[in-house]
């Protein structure tokens, strides 16, 4: 297994990044590639998970080793594959996911694509009490006052979802929306109007 890649980040797309290591370009799938934007054209270390299927071998990349470990834990849950696990680990603060599992917060977990109530319950059943070793790195600032981060994240996510619905109402199709969604997710705490404005700007670049 490839533990990590350290090299020059030479390309970013909506689902992948390319890291040049010793003249070899490695294609790495990321939940939100734009999280690595600050390293563009510079050296970066990406922690990786190698997933092997009959028809494909893919590398999935993470900023933190602990994010990858959470990804591996998610893959152990029935009904969650690499794509779903990647969305869960990287679309919100990972610590918020851990906290939601520990708090048995089904409503937070079902906000992720492909996660219904049954899958959320399975995640809680399989992983609750088993993620303690990840907490120090993933939840250092989990609490803000008396409110856990996942509540704030849920509110921010609600603003984003409202913006995406507005884009659909304007006639944009899901394929177009999926291309610009990672850019929006990389900018937390925006209002619905701000998300819409940013989305329209990104659409013009397509």
Automatic annotation (TrEMBL):
Residues 155-206 are annotated as: Domain III. Transmembrane segments: none annotated. It is found in: Cytoplasm. It holds the Pfam family HHH_5. One of its GO terms (molecular function) is four-way junction helicase activity. Keywords: ATP-binding, Cytoplasm, DNA damage, DNA recombination, DNA repair, DNA-binding, Helicase, Hydrolase, Nucleotide-binding. Its main location: cytoplasm. The keyword Hydrolase applies. Residues 72-91, 107-126 form the Helix-hairpin-helix DNA-binding motif class domain. It comes from the Bacteria. GO terms for biological process: DNA recombination; DNA repair. NCBIfam families: ruvA. Belongs to the RuvA family. Has three domains with a flexible linker between the domains II and III and assumes an 'L' shape. Domain III is highly mobile and contacts RuvB. The RuvA-RuvB-RuvC complex processes Holliday junction (HJ) DNA during genetic recombination and DNA repair, while the RuvA-RuvB complex plays an important role in the rescue of blocked DNA replication forks via replication fork reversal (RFR). RuvA specifically binds to HJ cruciform DNA, conferring on it an open structure. The RuvB hexamer acts as an ATP-dependent pump, pulling dsDNA into and through the RuvAB complex. HJ branch migration allows RuvC to scan DNA until it finds its consensus sequence, where it cleaves and resolves the cruciform DNA. Homotetramer. Forms an RuvA(8)-RuvB(12)-Holliday junction (HJ) complex. HJ DNA is sandwiched between 2 RuvA tetramers; dsDNA enters through RuvA and exits via RuvB. An RuvB hexamer assembles on each DNA strand where it exits the tetramer. Each RuvB hexamer is contacted by two RuvA subunits (via domain III) on 2 adjacent RuvB subunits; this complex drives branch migration. In the full resolvosome a probable DNA-RuvA(4)-RuvB(12)-RuvC(2) complex forms which resolves the HJ. This is Holliday junction branch migration complex subunit RuvA. It comes from Salisediminibacterium halotolerans.
